[in-house]
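The aim of this short unit is practical: by the end, you should be able to scan a pair of folded records and say something sensible about each. We start with the first protein, listed as its amino acid sequence and then its structure tokens.
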Amino acid sequence: MKNSDLLKRVNALGFPLFDLEESQNANLTLADMVKSRDLRLWEGFPVVLVNSAEKGLFNYEKVKRYLKKPFDKSYLASLMAVSLALYKFFNLKFPWADKFYNSLSVARKREARAFLEKLKSDRELNVAGSEMSAQRLKTVFNNYFNQAQKKLNDLLSVKDELSLEYSLSQVFSPKQKELFLKKLKRDKLTKTEKEYFSRVVKKKVLALANPELHRLSQKLLE
């Protein structure tokens, strides 16, 4: 398997090295990331793991079955410990991650705690014999988290705008809605617009602002 193919599959599961959207076998992709022994991909492992797990695509036993060599399975366990330590560092709580941590052996729990301490002090992490930068791990994950949060905020913003547009359309005519928004934005109104706003739109606004009317409307919707 060529690394270019793996990089494309990794991107589609949340680690954006390429712009690509397609259905993925998350467990196979995670296994291939482990086998690659590519530090750049290992740094993105926590990102792909959390993105896959939150979508219900991750199954640890299935990932292990794709790994035939004992040392690859050991690499997987260490990368899981790194990921859990990173989530802990950022105070992120995931039920699946807590459940997985509780299933770890005493030695692996100790390894995860040691990784967490190194993340806190910005020391190099020795993962399966390879030195990984604590700062790069945190930066890669933080960049992903910020992008994901921005997408969520943008989505909620669009949803709110559409909801507002719909609600305004139920109360105001197109022209009245235009004047309502212009007034809200403090845009300059013409003399005719001012008169129409005062004579018609303002009355509807006052009615909408009436707390008793709002209370009764809410009661009707119960």
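Turning to the second protein, read its sequence before its tokens, just as you did above.
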Amino acid sequence: MRPRANPSQSPASERDDARYWLALHRAPGIGSRRCLKLLSEFDSPATIFEAGADHLRSAGLPPDSIDYLVNPDWEAVDRDLDWLAQAGNSIMTCRDPDYPVLLKEISAPPALLFIHGDPDYLSQPQLAIVGSRNPSHDGQSLATEFAAHLACCGLTITSGLASGIDAASHQGALRAGGGTVAVTGTGLDRVYPARHRELAHQIAENGALVSEFPPGTGPLAANFPRRNRIISGLSLGTLVVEAALRSGSLITARAALEQGREVFAIPGSIHNPLTRGCHALIREGAKLVETGVHILEELAPLISVALSQADKKPAADQPSGKKQEPAKLAGEYLQLLDSMGYQPVSIDQLVERSGLTPEQVSSMLLVLELEDHIVGGAGGRYTRIR
């Protein structure tokens, strides 16, 4: 997959444009904030490299950044371009029209993202699910179940590819036939932890792997908090399943709070150290959830906005696969609609007719209402409209 660029550009100019973006991304001492500031002062990455030392000095850059911009490491950039030329690989810059709207809203959005898989998943309504790397059996099962249920309701599940809750969340979404995004703390030419190589392959086939770190970057501890702000930044909300008081998951949750996003936490036993982080978040204002319905009820208005934004894209740009149909009108959804007829019915009647559980019926009704297949009426009754 080629780098995203202006359709009028030739392949050669696209490659040149990508080359300057990649070179700027590798510049020492130029993080997200400084990079965005430079781009606001200079017209493009190319003009930054053409500016000269004096101009760069007047822009407030430190000496090591100026030395690099005057004499870039083109060999490293060429290695990035070799990675980019491989099937399924792409980059997305902060000036790309398809750059995720929610991510652009955070205080220091990445100037450039490396992507392996389908970039369109990044613009889908997403829920982050994070938690302990060493969860209990119940915690791991909860992560899988919540991810599967919410993926069936049209949410793309986003996490960090780590052991434990992260992996269970990705697996739950995949088993349900939904989409999932993994934000990594390494370059995308390697998988960390290595035992998740097959999982990473499945995610690339049914979602996307994303990183702001160039190929060749190893699993450095300092990279993971930076990765966490992207997980929460891409998402409408963050669900914490199990987390100790000192946990990277709490970094993600607090980043979500700072970004103005919803935070959800599943409570547990007061004697379980893995639930103390969740309880702390609830005391700080996170929403206590027991079922996926609680999350869908909170996010429903935001999902509608996100879907309307996605609908504004040309049809050719719409993501492929099941994520185009959030209501997923097949199987149990059609069964539920068939059970309704065209007269107002209550949830209890639908449970009796369909054989589904009350939780399943409630969450499916919410999705069907969002998709304008049914309308709610007085007395908690629902009517099929198409």
